[in-house]
Recover the amino acids of this structure.
C-alpha cells in the first residue's frame, strides 16, 4: 500500500486574522485536484472558523492543536471535539512536546485524549520525541517505547488512516537544527517496526517534525519511512510552506 504524503502546518500561537487571510490567499488553489498528498493546517483556536471558511473547496484539511477529552460542560478555557465537528474539523494534534514539556500534559492525560479522540472518530497526529539529554544518554529508543506504550497499550481501536505519528525530536523543534535524513530514518524505521510488532500497525503514516525548511525537505522526504512532515516556523507563511508541501513540483 502506498502511504499518502501529509504536509502539516502547526501554526502554534501565531498567525492572526490578517496573516490567516494572507496565507490562504497566497496558497490559492494549489491543492485542488491533488491526490498524492494532503495539506493540513492547524491554526490556533480563534482563527479555526475563519480558516475553515477560507479552506472550503481548496482541498486543504484543518486540524486543531488541542482539545479537552470530555463531551462538554464546566471546563473553563477548553474546547471540545463536538465544537471541532461543528466547524467540519476531524483531525487533532496530541502529545506535542510543547504540551508535554511546557504545559505539563502527562502520559496519563495523553492516553485519555487518545482514547477520547478515537471514540469520537477523529484522526490523531500523535507526537513523540526525545530530548537532547535523553539522546546523549542513549535513551532515545526507550523514551519512544514509553511514549508509545503509555498512550496506546490496550487503547487502540481506530483505523490505520486515523493514526498518524509525528516523530519530533525535542532538540530539533524551533532550534534550526533538524535531524538529518539518516537520523530521522533510523527512528522512523524503528517506530514503524514497533507499531507493527505491538499493534499490527506497520503501515501507518509517520511524519517528521523539527526545523523542517525548504532547504532540507528533499533530503527528509527522500527517506523510505518518512511519509510527510509537521512544520512549525516555516509553515507560517504560504511562500515557505508552499516550497515544503510542493518541494517536488518545481
Ligand atoms: P519547528 O516546529 O518546525 O518550528 O521546529 C515543529 C513542531 O513543533 O511541530
Amino acid at each position: 500500500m502506498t502511504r499518502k504524503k501529509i504536509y502539516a502546518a502547526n501554526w502554534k500561537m501565531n498567525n492572526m486574522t490578517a496573516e490567516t487571510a494572507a496565507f490562504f490567499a497566497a496558497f490559492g488553489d494549489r491543492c485542488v485536484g491533488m491526490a498524492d498528498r494532503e495539506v493540513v493546517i492547524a491554526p490556533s483556536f480563534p482563527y479555526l472558523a475563519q480558516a475553515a471558511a477560507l479552506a472550503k473547496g481548496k482541498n486543504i484539511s484543518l486540524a486543531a492543536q488541542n482539545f479537552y477529552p470530555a463531551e462538554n460542560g464546566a471546563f473553563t478555557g477548553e474546547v471540545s471535539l463536538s465544537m471541532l465537528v461543528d466547524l467540519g474539523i476531524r483531525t487533532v494534534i496530541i502529545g506535542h512536546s510543547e504540551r508535554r514539556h511546557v504545559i505539563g500534559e502527562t502520559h496519563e492525560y495523553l492516553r485519555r485524549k487518545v482514547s477520547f479522540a478515537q471514540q469520537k472518530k477523529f484522526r490523531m497526529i500523535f507526537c513523540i520525541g526525545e530530548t537532547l539529554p535523553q539522546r546523549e544518554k542513549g535513551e532515545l529508543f526507550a523514551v519512544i517505547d514509553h511514549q508509545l506504550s503509555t498512550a496506546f497499550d490496550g487503547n487502540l481501536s481506530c483505523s490505520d488512516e486515523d493514526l498518524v505519528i509525528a516523530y519530533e525530536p525535542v532538540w530539533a523543534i524551533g532550534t534550526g537544527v533538524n535531524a538529518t535524513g539518516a537520523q530521522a530514518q533510523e527512528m522512523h524505521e524503528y517506530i514503524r517496526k514497533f507499531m507493527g510488532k505491538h499493534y499490527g500497525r506497520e503501515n501507518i503514516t509517520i511524519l517528521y517534525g523539527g526545523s523542517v525548511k525548504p532547504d532540507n525537505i528533499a533530503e527528509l522526504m527522500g527517506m523510505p519511512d518518512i511519509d510527510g512532515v509537521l512544520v512549525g516556523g516555516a509553515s507560517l507563511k504560504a511562500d515557505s510552506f508552499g516550497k515544503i508541501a510542493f518541494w517536488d513540483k518545481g
User: Anything to note?
Assistant: The CA atoms of residues 92 and 124 lie 5 Å apart. The chain is about 40% helix and 15% strand. The two ends are 26 Å apart (CA to CA).
